[in-house]
Design a protein that fits this description.
single chain; Double Stranded RNA Binding Domain; five-stranded mixed β-sheet; 42% helix
Length: 180
């Protein structure tokens, strides 16, 4: 009975591998990576994505994270696609001290995105909404430590959102390339 239970997941994974299934997440909880090595056309298409300006500091961080995922893969590639992204953060207090101040803060981050072609009258090729959340502890009486924790949390959220947007754009471009 024990051996049969172990055999089923192994057989399912073997069947998924045979049909071209590729997991998005790496082993041991590694960060999301896009596996584009098997399709040079997809690498070329992703390098042709131009990330539009995103206002405010978080937007600048998000734009740079997306540029690293797209434009830096093949510098000098002509622009064929435009990516519009907005970054939204909401903060909520989770824990409170006896004096009423927050002891833990959670950020809910979202990034609606839209990919269009570079035509004079752009056609929307794909849309999506990337969402994630993270939190940090506010140390009692340690302003610098609280700011460092908040900054680190925002950095992690931006990287996670950029990964999720990049996956959505890659899926959109892969479907487009498969269609012809």
């Amino acid at each position: 009975m024990w051996a049969r239970r172990a055999l089923f997941p192994a057989a399912a994974l073997a069947l998924l591998g045979a049909c071209g299934f590729r997991p998005l997440y790496g082993p041991d909880g590694e960060a999301v990576r896009l596996d584009t090595s098997d399709d040079p056309r997809l690498v070329q298409a992703m390098a042709a994505v131009r990330v539009a300006n995103i206002p405010e500091r978080r937007g600048q961080l998000m734009r740079r994270a997306l540029q690293r995922r797209f434009e830096d893969s093949r510098p000098g590639t002509p622009i064929r696609y435009d990516l519009q992204v907005r970054v939204n953060f909401q903060a909520e207090a989770l824990g409170f001290r006896r004096d009423g101040t927050a002891s833990r803060v959670r950020f809910l981050a979202s990034a609606p995105w839209s990919l269009t072609d570079g035509a004079p009258t752009p056609t929307v090729l794909g849309r999506g909404l990337a969402r994630t959340l993270d939190s940090y502890t506010v140390p009692d009486g340690a302003f610098f430590a609280a700011e460092a924790s908040r900054d680190d949390t925002e950095r992690r959220l931006i990287e996670e959102l950029a990964d999720r947007v990049a996956i959505g754009v890659a899926a959109t471009l892969r479907r487009r390339l498969a269609a012809g």
